Amino acid sequence: MNAWARRVLLVDDDALVRSLVGDLLQRHGFEVASCSDVTQARQLADEFDPDLAILDVNLGSGPTGVQLGYVIRQVHPGMSVMYLTRYPTALVTEPGLSEHIAQSVVVAKDDVTNPDVVMTAVEQALRGSRVAGPPAEGADAAIRQLSRTQLHVLELLAQGLTNASIAEIRNTSERAVEKHVKLIYEHLGLETQGAHNARVLAAKKFLEAMGATGSGLADSTAG
Questions:
Q1: Four-point Cα dihedral 174, 178, 180, 185, nearest 10
Q2: What is the arithmetic mean of pLDDT over 25-52?
Q3: Band of pLDDT at residue 84, cut at 50, 70 and 90
Q4: How many CB atoms lie within 10 A of CB 163?
Q5: How confident is the model at residue 100, as a pLDDT?
Q6: Closest CA relative to residue 106, chosen from 122, 95, 130, 129
Q7: 190 partner at 20 to 30 Å CA-CA among 59, 60, 86, 129?
């Protein structure tokens, strides 16, 4: 699997589970930030701006993992959510959050020792519904491989927004946005030092992938 340097926030109060899942993700090329409680998770979500949050449903006293997932998904558009739980049937009945749960991937904790199950679930979560909607049929394969977070950043970039404005919308740091933009350029095969403006070309690719013409964008700029 090509993870495209995607970022995962892993939240579980069980150190063994964090170690097993975190090591597995890193072996598959993912960048992982992990913690054990809601307060740390909220802070990491802001600083790390992950593509995917993997959350333990039972985090002890206080908010549940599902409540945490709901909140950070509202604050960070485009983030995928995957849950780990020992009681998957109880998860789907959490009051008021059925729609959110339906948009998430759930994995039984008994399966965390099975790499195939975990990585299949991770890929399923990352390829879930995208903020901007699915790319048009025949879109550039590289566009189709972007994570939800990367696609959302690209969507905002295509609207002509600066990195600072994108960071404000995504409730993250400008540095995190810069890293996402750099990865997007790499995935799309765009040179930042060439004769053409990589930002403009990335925006054109996005518009074409979404079925737009991109005719309002110049073919190139002076940089």
A1: 150
A2: 92
A3: very high
A4: 19
A5: 81
A6: 122
A7: 129
Residues 69/55, Cβ–Cβ less than 8 Å: yes
Which residues, other chains included, contact 213 with Cβ-Cβ below 8 Å and sequence gap of 6+?
207
How do the domains of the chain map onto residue ranges? 7-126, 141-209
Q: Which two tokens stand for residue 108?
A: 């039984």
Question: pLDDT for 100-135, tens place per residue?
Answer: 887 788 898 889 999 999 998 998 888 764 444 455
CATH class for domain 141-209? mainly alpha
pLDDT (average), residues 204-214: 69
Tell me the pairing of strands 7-11 and 52-56: parallel
CA atoms within 13 A on the CB side of 105: 22
CATH code for the domain defined by 7-126: 3.40.50.2300
- Say whether pLDDT at 220 is over 70: no
Q: Which two tokens stand for residue 76?
A: 């960070």
CA distance 9 to 23: 13
